[in-house]
Design goal:
Number of helices: 12
Largest sheet: 6 strands, parallel
CATH class of the largest domain: Alpha Beta
Bound molecules: zinc ion
Distance between the termini: 27 Å
Structural class: alpha/beta
Oligomer: single chain
Number of strands: 14
Number of domains: 2
Strand content: 15-25%
Radius of gyration: 22 Å
């Protein structure tokens, strides 16, 4: 049985509740830049990021992650608060994100993969993009042996990836179901194979793939990670907090606990040494519930972190576990699209 008017009353009640229920959201960005191709959907253009900041300042209350963690600890209100975070530690966070954050006076936390600070390597998923999705010619067959399991792929006509095909495919990303060429299937398959591997093993395979493809190891300026000096500049002034994101960006759940602990504690001490100050926030690499375990969370607490971010979606309210804070992944939306997502997220 349905009583007329109840639905409307419920909608009004929900709207009123939304105005008073203390709820915060944490946003997850990676890069603020514009690239010809972005298969992992990591980039937000500076223009769109500026629009996002405008929306945040108009519709919410930007706070730092530490303020949110403190409020959770003290049981204080989180009414429409919003936190900006970045993962991984790309150099564009300093050159493109920081000036805009300063202009709007919006605090942020940048979670840095410590082993890549000042490194001449690209992140492994960027390397894979360079190997498989750049125009040029590749050998016809790829044979790989990973953890004793043999793989073989025939590239067929995709061995030659000319400029025209590259241009027509460069809008492709991993969220698409289809693979326009064999190279895209390879990129996707090898990403999956490499993700759970220990860093040393992954680097061996990447060395082999680079050699197979005839690609050098020099970091592209467009895919550069922060240097130690840039990291210090990013943190200068106090608007931006630097958090830890392990040393090599592994799937922690796939590692024995002693190695997980090394990844967590070494990232903290390395960053603290560079910055000369305490690092008290952490973000789990990949950040889904399957990418870390209860032991991981316990280790993060044991090493003295005040809070830790995951990457599953959700709002933050009183009682939320501050060592598994949910975050909303932000894509390259314009201000209007972002505003719609923002309202949906903050209103629950
Ligand atoms: Zn990451």
């Amino acid at each position: 049985m349905r009583i007329r008017g109840i639905g409307r009353l419920q909608r009004i009640a929900r709207r009123v509740t939304n105005l008073v229920v203390p709820r915060a959201i944490i946003l997850l960005y990676h890069r603020i830049t514009e690239l010809p191709s972005d298969p992992q959907l990591l980039c937000v253009t500076p223009q769109h990021f500026r629009q996002h900041l405008e929306v945040l300042c108009k519709k919410g209350y930007p706070l730092s992650l530490q303020q949110i963690a403190q409020s959770l600890r003290d049981g204080k209100s989180l009414l429409r608060s919003v936190v900006v975070t970045f993962d991984d530690g790309y150099a564009d966070n300093l050159y493109n994100a920081r000036p805009l954050l300063k202009r709007y006076d919006v605090p942020a936390t940048v979670f840095v993969t410590a082993g890549y600070v000042g490194s001449d390597r690209e992140f492994w998923y960027d390397d894979l993009e360079r190997i498989f999705l750049s125009p040029g010619r590749l050998p016809e067959v790829l044979r790989l042996s990973v953890e004793g399991k043999p793989y073989q792929w025939e590239l067929g006509p995709a061995d030659d990836y000319d400029n025209e095909t590259y241009r027509s495919c460069r809008g492709w990303n991993v969220s698409r179901k289809e693979n326009p060429t064999m190279r895209h299937l390879l990129y996707r398959s090898i990403s999956e194979i490499l993700r759970p591997l220990p860093d040393a093993r992954r680097q061996n395979i990447l060395d082999y793939l680079r050699q197979w493809a005839g690609v050098n190891t020099i970091q592209r300026p467009t895919h550069r990670t922060l240097s130690a000096d840039e990291l210090v500049r990013l943190a200068n002034g106090g608007l931006i907090e630097i958090g830890a994101h392990t040393v090599s960006h592994p799937v922690l759940a796939a590692m024995p606990l002693d190695l997980q602990k090394e990844e967590i504690s070494h990232s903290k001490t390395r960053l603290e040494k560079i910055l000369g100050r305490r690092v008290s926030s952490f973000a789990y690499p990949f950040g889904g519930r399957s990418h870390y375990t209860d032991e991981t969370v316990a280790a993060v607490r044991e090493f003295g972190f005040e809070s830790a971010c995951s990457s599953f979606a959700g709002t933050v309210c009183r009682g939320t576990d501050r060592w598994q804070l949910p975050r909303f992944l932000v894509r390259d939306w314009d201000g209007e699209q972002f505003g719609r997502y923002f309202e949906g997220w903050i209103n629950g």
